[in-house]
Known about the structure:
26% helix, alpha+beta, binds ligand PPE, 8 helices
Amino acid sequence: MAASSLRTDKIWMDGGMVPYDEANIHVLTHSLHYGLAVFEGMRCYKCADGRSAIFRGREHIRRLFESALILEMKIPFSPEELLKASAEIVRINKLEECYIRPIAFYGEGEMGLSARGNKVRVAIAAWPWGAYLGDDAVKQGVRLKTSSFVRFHHNSLMPHAKASGQYINSILAGYEARRSGYDEALLLDVEGFVAEGSGENVFIVRDGKVRTPPVSSILPGITRDAVIKLMRRSGIEVTEELFPRDAVYIADEAFMTGTAAEVTPVREVDDRPIGNGRPGPITVKLQEMFRAALRGQDANCREWLYYIS
Ligand code: PPE
């Protein structure tokens, strides 16, 4: 993604709006050196009634605070303040639909792993962000490759925390998959069970039943939670259980979920077509249900929307 497309008028930083070019940090910023920062990714959509809303904004901000709690970081703002600031950054930049990135990190002053005195700083930026895995991905589906990189064990890094440094695992897996001509990586956990994509949760469908890995070594995705609820409400059976890679090979359908990726069908894994190699009926139905939810067209899901005005 070209850096210029991130440019907006303002970025929220440490309690106020600053011009894009002034939203800078020092090179001795502690989090830059050791990767200890927590962040979120949310999407704001234009609803059917013309208003814009952050999809599951409250849940994302809650997860940001949970990530901080897990990593012993104290964010010097309240969840409500960061939710309001997230809405404000969309409004002030006159964005109707965008991706919103809150991040909390340690500033500069002390170096070393044992430093505890650095100020916790918070920034929130927003920018327009299109289809995460390419324009065709949502319609045609993506091609995955099982990664040689294993998803970290939950006693090495903690998967409930959406923390910057943990993404080195994802980035390396993504580089490898894309360099080999695939769209995305499929990471297995330390036991060899399917975990998730580099930035998405994964689901498989067989005989009308849906399965997704439990939250042990995966990020507990907010989109994952939304689609589980949508499926259960519409009578589709979905369970959280471990399964090995061959369960994916023999699945009728597979799909990935994430804020950036939304609901993306998987058409191939390790060069094997999934089902008939095209997005299956449950995946397509789910994409429709998800779209209705985020546009405010499903009355049961309105509580998921945080309207920006
Ligand atoms: N697993 C991982 C590892 C992950 O990074 C994400 C989000 C998910 C699952 C899905 O979580 P959720 O967004 O709550 O449904 N990945 C973000 C990455 C985007 C980026 O490249 O940066 C996202 O989708 O916003």
